[in-house]
């Protein structure tokens, strides 16, 4: 039986992965933010010439679905590593942001 | 007493927030991917003129720390909403990607 | 009477502008590429929630037209400065790329 | 003897290239802005793990120099096509922006 996945566990796996390859030296906040934006653009690239309707159907094609899932993973990997080196808890940050947005955009 | 934060709970809050403002109509995968990349670039903007060393100290300044945390939240918000509309589990996607990377980059 | 604008003249103005403010120290190719991508994302931000049809009409609104024109200028400014520090002639690079694309995508 | 390259001539080549392949249907301002940001990120990708000093030497390696030049061309191609569909003169836009910046950042 395996534990359910959680953010802290994935951050540990990512940190171990980087440490085992001596890659932490590259993981300045500046570089991780750049890498995050590059991966986000690779997601955009999948959608760039699609109509809104076509973009809503990307998961129907197994190859595209795999590609999208892979890029989502890359974005999350760099976001979690950036949070790790900066000492930010991403879920708490998002929870607080939704609170602020609820006050900023009242229904 | 509040439950600990988790990804599924935050996705529910984000979906409720968008539904209450009738914003789901804008949330095509194409638009959410673009919004994600825009927020990732707002993170890059904070670091763009900093040296690697300065970038490692951004959290020491409270205003910059708040700004970085806020942008991290925005990136995560759009990533989770993109995953929701596409039916992707982001933690499972990342776990599988780390597995693949361990085979691709052996120690 | 003023000369017609050209790329070399604008690169000279940009270089003088940066030199007069002692900003060249920040203009590493890495930083200029990041700044270019940040400005490109500010262009994307203008369009991110628009339908394709709405995006085709952005110049009809004077405020949006001004904003788009301003972001186009920022993208071009960083592209020309990047080319300057790297010794790339942007028009020759594009001309050669169109040649390659004509062979790669025959009619 | 060939004419010297200019922006208007390159825009004409790009427009002819797209028209011959029936690609103008994809060239909404929204899509071109996204494509521009994707190409800008491909430039960033080349520099993302480099130190500032390494980034200053990218043109010393012929393969990297070719890759950088190619991405610069792609960014310029989408910028010129975006300007074409929006009716923006990019050189005039940049000239006016430098004027504004000179007032905004006095020496």
UniProtKB/TrEMBL annotation, chains A, B, C, D:
InterPro entries: dCTP_Pyrophosphatase (IPR052555), DCTPP (IPR025984). It comes from Streptomyces qaidamensis. Keywords: Hydrolase. It comes from the Bacteria. Gene3D superfamilies: MazG-like (1.10.287.1080). One of its GO terms (biological process) is nucleoside triphosphate catabolic process. The lineage of its organism: Bacteria, Bacillati, Actinomycetota, Actinomycetes, Kitasatosporales. This is Nucleotide pyrophosphohydrolase. One of its GO terms (molecular function) is nucleoside triphosphate diphosphatase activity.
